């Protein structure tokens, strides 16, 4: 489990690609402290397991499924990546509940300044947007952010200067792909609620009221 509060920005040291998988070696410093082989580290919001440790980096396997569902395949040597160690049981929730299981990939459609804030507009598929709500939580490349606006083809977030400085957002450009993880609570609620008919499984106000929400 993660919180979406990035601890540091690392860089890709090497990528060893197989036919349908890869091994990433990530140069880092802070996240290496007290980390052991087998621990979890979120790389751009994707939970990866440490397979090797080096004085200045760690290596992790990336499965076929992960490459298909995320933007990790776009990384190259030298790419900046957001890093966060798994949250300790006695830690503080600075962001929201993040599983490190990416739902899909979005594309940055626009970046604009608004006084000290910077707005990022992300285009995404409808399968992701159905779980995105205004003022709800979204994880972009492992960064816990609040949704400021939702549109038919995407959503926007407004970021503070500190977030941009402390993450790889300051190196993102229009057209870049980003990993997206929606709030896990909404997905569980949808899964657990009974469908209206065998062919329909949609949430409505009336259904929620009948179920006590």
TrEMBL record:
**What InterPro entries does its record include?**
ATP_synth_asu-like_sf, Lumazine-bd, Lumazine-bd_dom, Riboflavin_synthase-like_b-brl
Q: Tell me where the Lumazine-binding repeats sit in this chain.
A: 1-96, 97-193
Pathways per UniProt:
Cofactor biosynthesis; riboflavin biosynthesis; riboflavin from 2-hydroxy-3-oxobutyl phosphate and 5-amino-6-(D-ribitylamino)uracil: step 2/2
What Gene3D superfamilies does this protein's entry cite?
2.40.30.20
**Annotated PROSITE patterns:** LUMAZINE_BIND
What the entry lists under Pfam families is as follows: Lum_binding
Residues of the signal peptide: none
Q: Which domain of life is it from?
A: Bacteria
Q: Which reaction does it catalyse?
A: 2 6,7-dimethyl-8-(1-D-ribityl)lumazine + H(+) = 5-amino-6-(D-ribitylamino)uracil + riboflavin
Q: What is its EC number?
A: 2.5.1.9
Q: What keywords does the record list, in alphabetical order?
A: Repeat, Riboflavin biosynthesis, Transferase
CDD domains in the record, alphabetically? Riboflavin_synthase_like (cd00402)
Q: Which GO terms describe its molecular function?
A: riboflavin synthase activity
Annotated Lumazine-binding domain ranges read 1-96, 97-193
> Per its database record, what is this protein's job?
Catalyzes the dismutation of two molecules of 6,7-dimethyl-8-ribityllumazine, resulting in the formation of riboflavin and 5-amino-6-(D-ribitylamino)uracil.
Protein's UniProt name: Riboflavin synthase
């Amino acid at each position: 489990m993660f919180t979406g509060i990035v601890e540091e920005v690392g860089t890709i040291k090497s990528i060893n690609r197989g036919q349908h998988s890869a091994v990433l070696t990530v140069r880092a410093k802070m996240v290496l402290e007290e980390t052991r082989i087998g621990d979890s580290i979120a790389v751009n919001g994707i939970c990866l397991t440490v397979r090797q440790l080096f004085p200045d980096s760690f290596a992790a396997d990336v499965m076929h499924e992960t490459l298909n569902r995320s933007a990790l395949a776009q990384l190259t040597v030298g790419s900046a990546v957001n890093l966060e160690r798994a949250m300790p049981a006695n830690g503080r929730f600075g962001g929201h509940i993040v599983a490190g299981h990416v739902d899909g990939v979005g594309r940055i459609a626009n970046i604009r300044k608004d006084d000290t804030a910077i707005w990022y507009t992300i285009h995404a598929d409808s399968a992701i947007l159905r779980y995105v709500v205004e003022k709800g939580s979204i994880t972009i490349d492992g960064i816990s952010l609040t949704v400021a606006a939702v549109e038919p083809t995407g959503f926007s977030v407004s970021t503070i200067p500190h977030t941009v400085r402390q993450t790889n957002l300051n190196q993102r450009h229009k057209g870049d792909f980003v990993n997206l993880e929606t709030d896990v609570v909404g997905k569980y609620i949808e899964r657990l609620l009974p469908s209206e008919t065998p062919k329909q499984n949609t949430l409505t106000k009336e259904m929620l009221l009948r179920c006590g929400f």
